[in-house]
Amino acid sequence: MPAADLILIARHVHTLDPARPAAQAVAISGGTITAVGDRDDVSAWRGNHTEVLDLGAATLTPGLVDGHVHPVMGLDLTAGIDLTGVRSPRELVQALRTALPTEGWVRGWGLDPNAFQGAPITSAPLVEALGPDVPVYLVLFDAHSALVSPKALELAGIRGPQEFRSGAQIVLGPDATPTGHLLELEAMGLVSRLLPAESGPQRRKRLLGLLQDMAASGLTAVNAMDFEGDSEQLFTALEAEGDLPLRLRFAPFVLPEHGRGRLEHVVQQQRLRGRRWAVEGAKFMIDGTIDGGTAWLDEADTHGGSTAPFWPDPQEYRDAVRYLADRDVPTVTHAIGDAGIRYVLETVAGLRTGPRVPHRIEHIETLPDDLVPRFRQLDVTASMQPTHCTHYTRADGSDNWSERLGKDRAARGFRTRDLREAGARLALGSDWPIAPFDPRAIIADARLRRIAGDLHHEPVGLDQALTARMALEGYTSQAAQAAGLAGRAGAVRPGLRADLSAFALDPLTADPDEFAQSPVPLTVVDGSIVHRG
Q1: Contacts of 362 (CB under 8 A, 6+ apart)
Q2: Crossing angle for the helix pair 314-325 and 260-269, to the nearest 10 degrees
Q3: Helix (H, G, I), strand (E, B), or coil: what is residue 488?
Q4: 3-class secondary structure, 75
Q5: Has residue 160 got a pLDDT over 90?
Q6: What are the φ and ψ backbone dihedral angles of 386, each rounded to 5 degrees?
Q7: Full-prediction pTM beyond 0.85?
Q8: pLDDT score of 10 more than 90
Q9: To the nearest whole percent, how much of the chain has pLDDT over 70?
Q10: Which of 91, 239, 495, 517 has its CA 20 to 30 A from that of 295?
């Protein structure tokens, strides 16, 4: 064995390797783990130029991987004022009065529909805060809907309903005029295309800062569910300046308005890659969101919504998935409602070829009993975000999501434990910027079924809580399997990628509320230290 470039020593190394579950030292050379052992082994691994880092009481784990983020789209979705803390129309008015316009526009993001306290979502608070002549564009927390001012509607030429290729909608009030509430991407795009563009240097600066913050939280890689617009230019330019602080695996969108030409383009995009980024997949949506009434449910929600797929002709979705699967492109499908999840599973069951990388379903918010075993049977990855449950629902059913679903369907929500116990592969993530990306808090929430550190709220569906090991696996070994990297990543053993995360607290033994705040002394990607706390 050649002398190591880097040796890491810690009180605990959770290898997630059945052959050697625990260790205290790891040797790395050329971006690969070359040895795993105890402190006594270190002297045999050292060379004249080996860097040795003793992390003391810290715990070392395989590098954490977020199953679902939107790093490039998120640059646009998080422009303007942060509204994630707004809890009432009055607070929305107060927040908007502090906003600084950009080229005449006021923008905001993260607005929770629960802030309207059961009342219709309309532009009235926007007008009260800023008057009738200011164009305002606010992205709601799910990023599948927006709230805009009357001036923004005027500038976009929106005066009434419009037909869309997808399941998008311009919401109308009792007088048949637009309320300012826009559902799904096509409707949102009528206004978002008018927004002032951010300069290239500023976008690169914000993107690099985001990736650095992610690495500082212990993330070594993310599954990026977009590759739109200037994505290729952004990452090519960043890598021309130096290595990225984490790995990114992209899945470009395929939407109902796209034709065969787009599918052929996505196949060609699979060749695009840099040193730490690559296009490997395609992203679909079969439905929207429960909160917006655009999910696809077996039966309508309590408001009469969520009755149709995002694709007006779902057979076109099925044909597009088959086209890509036949060309060995792994697919990722956003499916939230029970009817949508079932349709995607049936689509995968009908494919002619088995994939090199497993197909995935994202979110999976309300899941009937009969579909739980189908994930394992069909080798479909369940990709879920525990904080969608803990941040936006309540045990008493008083939240918008639960109220729209009704008691029975809400009770079968976010079934992470049932899926794991049924043998499904479960990848965990954040869906940033829909929810915060910090994996420490998400791992804690997956175990607690409430927001880490918030002792005042009752857990939501505590029977679906993951064990500490299951939660860690959702970010490591299960994430590696989901990306087709079993045997190359997701554990700490010789021959695997040297992607490692270190925590001051042990994720398997620490109290989850405390682990959510654990310092991160070190993050290593490809054998290089990308964050040192």
Answers
A1: 68, 225, 332, 333, 334, 335, 383, 384
A2: 30
A3: coil
A4: helix
A5: yes
A6: -55, -30
A7: yes
A8: yes
A9: 100
A10: 91
